[in-house]
Write a structure and sequence with these properties.
Blueprint (H helix, E strand, L loop, with lengths): L2 E5 L2 E4 L4 E8 L7 E7 L6 E7 L5 E3 L7 E6 L4 E6 L8 E8 L13 E2 L3 E6 L1
Parallel strand pairs: 2-11
Antiparallel strand pairs: 1-3, 3-8, 4-5, 4-9, 5-6, 7-8, 9-10, 9-11
C-alpha cells in the first residue's frame, strides 16, 4: 500500500510561486507513475503533471506548461510541484497520486493511490 501526504499549499497573489511536496511511503517501483492533479469547486478533477519514478518521462497539462515543474527526489521518496507565475485559475485543491501501471493515458485513467490534498488559493 502506498501512502501519500501533501504539503506546501497556501495563499499567494497572482504572479507568485509555491512549491508543493508529497511524501510517499510504502513500495513504489520504478515503473510507477506519480503526479499531481487538482480540483476546483464545481469543476472536475484534472491532471496537472506526472512523472515515472524512473524519471524516464514527464508529462504536463497544456494549461500549466512552462509555469509548473514536477520533480521527484528518490532519496527521500518525495514528489514536488514547483508552481511559478500562478494565476487565479490555478486555485484548487491539489492532490498527489500514484499509479503502479505507469503514466500512459494519465489524463483519463484512474490512479490507485491518492493523498488528502493541499489547498492552493491565488488572488488577483
Amino acid at each position: 500500500v502506498v501512502q501519500l501526504v501533501e504539503s506546501g499549499g497556501g495563499s499567494v497573489q497572482a504572479g507568485g510561486s509555491l512549491r508543493l511536496s508529497c511524501a510517499a511511503s510504502g513500495y513504489i517501483g520504478r515503473t510507477y507513475c506519480m503526479g499531481w492533479f487538482r480540483q476546483a469547486p464545481g469543476k472536475e478533477r484534472e491532471g496537472v503533471a506526472v512523472t515515472y519514478v524512473s524519471g524516464s518521462n514527464t508529462y504536463y497539462a497544456d494549461s500549466i506548461k512552462g509555469r509548473f515543474t514536477i520533480s521527484l527526489d528518490n532519496t527521500n521518496n518525495t514528489l514536488y510541484l514547483q508552481m511559478n507565475s500562478l494565476k487565479p485559475e490555478d486555485s484548487a485543491m491539489y492532490y498527489c497520486a500514484s499509479e503502479p501501471a505507469g503514466c500512459m493515458n494519465w489524463l483519463r485513467r484512474p490512479f490507485n493511490y491518492w493523498g488528502q490534498g493541499t489547498q492552493v488559493t491565488v488572488s488577483s
